[in-house]
Amino acid sequence: MGRNSVLAACLAVMVWTSGAAGQQTAAVVSRSDFDYPAMAKSIDTTTKALEAVREDIHRDRFATEPLLDTLDYEAAAAVRFVREDIVFQPYDGVLRGVDGTLRAGSGNSLDQSILLASLLKSAGFDARVVRGTLEEDDAIRLLRSLKPAALPSSLAYLDSSISRHFGAAAAAVGPATVSVGDSVLAETSRMLTSELRKVLEQGGVTLAPVDVQLAWLPMVRTYFWVQYREGSAQAWQEAHPAFGSETAPEGLAPEEYFAESVPETYQHKITVSAWIEQWSGGKITQQRVMAPWTRPVANLDAATIRYRNVPSGLNLQDAANLDKVLNDSQIFIPMLNDVRAPGAMAFDLQGRAIDPMVIGASGGGMTGVFKTMGDLMANATDGVMAREDQQPVLALHSMWLEFTFTTPGGEEFTQRRYLIAPRADHSSSSQSLLWPLITDHTYMINAGGQPLDYVADRFLATAIENSAWQKTIVRHFLNPEHPLTEPGNTLPVDFPPLAQFWFMADNPLAERDLVSFRARPAMLGLRRGFLNAETAFASVDIVANGMEHVRVTATGLDSVPSAALQQGIWDTVTETLPQKALSVAAESSSSTLRTFQLAAEQGIPIRLVRPGQGDAVAGLGLDAGAGEFISADLSQGYVVLVPQRLPEGSAMAGWWRINPTTGETLGMTGDGRGQDLVEYLTEVTGIAFNMVQALQALKDCDKQANDVAKMCCLVEANINNVAGLGFGGFMGAAVGTAGGALFDIVNYGTSLATEAAFGQAQGLMPQAKLGCDKMAATAW
User: Is pLDDT of 676 > 50?
Assistant: First the structure.
């Protein structure tokens, strides 16, 4: 069952073929021939097998409890593990925490010590973290021990588990290995790196290596280690995990102890808030519709932050009819992580906002609640006169999410992401605002890195949860008159961003003699929604991607900004992956890559704009929103590379922002980019949004000409669009013989299930690009 991969389709303009589904039989299968009970039983069997394979993942690589089992709860083993397996990397404060440091296989002396102290305390020992000051010679010695983390990158050990639980044939279905280094993405990245370096050098930006050893010494001299003992009657013993195999310093004077928690002054933090702007007769006012939500970055590493606006017209009965849902929706309530956002303010298309909690328990259920909101909002503007120029009296001008990263030293870095960019024309229909307002935004923090085992674990967790959704969708497809029931579970959303981060880290052009690591949190988002009632979209939004790239030399440590430039270009290029992995339309034809491609085709020169040259932005013919974003980048010290005019065919502006000192690079676009109420929103938004996507897939697939083609479309849409498991095809292709069969096992299980449904030895392979539309013209 060997196949080329979806990744190859994206990277090298190839398509999947499938041994299981690549042959056609003469029999014609119709909807009435499908055996749903047999398919449901097969799905249940597959789910149990997936659970069994998941049990065999090496969880000690990313979870402390199984790690302690491996270490036999011995203090000496825990100390040895952190010293030998968790390498030192220099950065400020607590960035990764216990779990993040274990997953990354690396940390600074504070994160290493927090991990070790946690392991020791969980093993029954007293433990505390100690702060002191290193002598300069010891700090230099520690810095010069710098080396990359050795994260496990093979899942081949799971092949035997797959064979045991799925049969010997299953372990052989993994996709062919794809050389990412020979891919179209890699070639695009090489070409852009060369072209951008030329423009930078012509503008006097050289990106020369800089010795950072002296600059990093004060940070590294603030040093942490662990003291532990078996009980209060025993003397404290010392462990210095940061020095690894090096000789640990002696005689350090303790200056501070942390026994239970780390003070906030050592924490990296992130704050999320949501805002709207209201236009009123030419005056624009801002209103926060979600109170600031602040958390330590270490608590959010590899976790998701999910934001969406709930429309008042959303309900299970109408979930299949998005036009009706939005036509019935005039009020929206912000949701964070599937519950009402802190301090959430309900708002409408006129930019009016009201606290839903002031309404209390009104009669008439949620219909009554939303009606009460509408009445209150309307009453607030009853006395406002209509305008003679036909412009609206009030209008929603813009909406955005705001992310603020705060370092332990108090330095802040803020990024704004628009759901609705500032509007130039308020006379157009406000209905056009509805679609972007219901976009689902799933963001993830990455403070270090993850072993492939962890990514695989989250893939299987999503696949297991998706089984109930798969049965629900197929049952409704086979019997549309059967009452539609919700599966009762919300699907995990962390696998797609985890996979995206994994691809960003798997840079085929990275210089192998460098030590590359994150000293600040990275953040990316996956935006999924609808352009209209017929078209879904997905797009990646990289909010922050800074990394340190260092070469250890005979005399010091050289920061290599050219490597940061190349990494940032690779990160931006990989933003195109979800559009293929999820099998949905691109949000638009606009991207930094597309803008620069069109500029090259049209002979438009690229301009370098430096900080302090904000006046030059006005002459580029950009809209106010893009100009505002570029000005913000310039104010933060970036140089900007942008076409001298907007190319024809480009939906919005695109540019590269580059830190001229560190080389940090990212492609940017012109969008910068009562109790009854809470219970209702919690119930409807998490599950019903997935149901909207599921039913949308049903509606789209129903356009196929025959029932086999419809089923083909449906199983692929469920795995790709509803569950977000389409990234698995990419992962399996890139991992290849190192365990790619695991990421293909959902395809295999679905093939078995559809074979059971058809009553013949032919199954549909999702993610296989079977060409469901072509199947409509043939007999199966």
Answer: no
Amino acid identity, residue 363?
G
Query: Is the C-alpha dihedral spanning 562, 600, 9, 690 positive or negative?
Result: positive
How many H helices and E strands in the chain? 25, 26
Exposed, middle or buried: residue 198 (CB in 10 Å: 0-12, 13-18, 19+)? exposed
- How is 482-527 classified by DSSP, letter by letter? SPP---S-PPP--HHHHHHHHHHH--TTS-TTSEEE-SS-EEEEEE
d(CA 373, CA 344): 13
Let me know: does 46 contact 763? Beta carbons within 8 Å.
no
Of residues 291 and 173, more confidently modeled: 291
- Of the given ranges (47-56, 375-384, 469-478), which has the lowest mean pLDDT? 375-384
Residues with Cβ within 8 Å of residue 432, at least 6 apart in sequence: none
Instruction: Please name every residue paired with 526 in a beta bridge, in sequence order, or none if there are none.
Output: 442, 540
Q: Looking at the predicted structure, is the pLDDT value of residue 619 above 90?
A: no
Strand order, beta sheet including 283-296:
283-296, 269-280, 394-406, 412-420
Give the number of C-alpha atoms closer than 13 A to the C-alpha of residue 36, restricted to the C-beta side.
Answer: 13
Q: Label residue 113 exposed, middle or buried (CB < 10 Å: 0-12, 13-18, 19+).
A: buried
Specify the pTM: 0.87
Max avg pLDDT among 69-73, 491-495, 723-727: 69-73
Closest CA to 564 of 221, 86, 200: 200
Nearest-angstrom CA–CA distance, 59 and 56: 8
Q: Which of 91, 2, 11, 177 is nearest to 447 (CA)?
A: 91
Alpha helices in 23-168 (DSSP H): 36-55, 64-70, 75-85, 97-104, 109-122, 136-143, 159-166
Tell me the per-residue pLDDT of 207-252, one tens digit each, with 9 for 90 and over.
Answer: 989 899 999 999 999 999 999 999 899 999 999 999 998 999 988 9
d(CA 235, CA 238): 10
Cα separation of 663 and 211, whole Å?
14
Lowest-pLDDT range of 45-59, 86-100, 426-440, 441-455: 426-440
Distance (Å, whole) CA 196 – CA 193? 5
Residues in CB range of 332: below 8 A, 6 or more apart: 309, 310, 311, 312, 346, 347, 348, 437, 438
As a whole number of angstroms, the distance between CA 2 and CA 243 comes to: 47
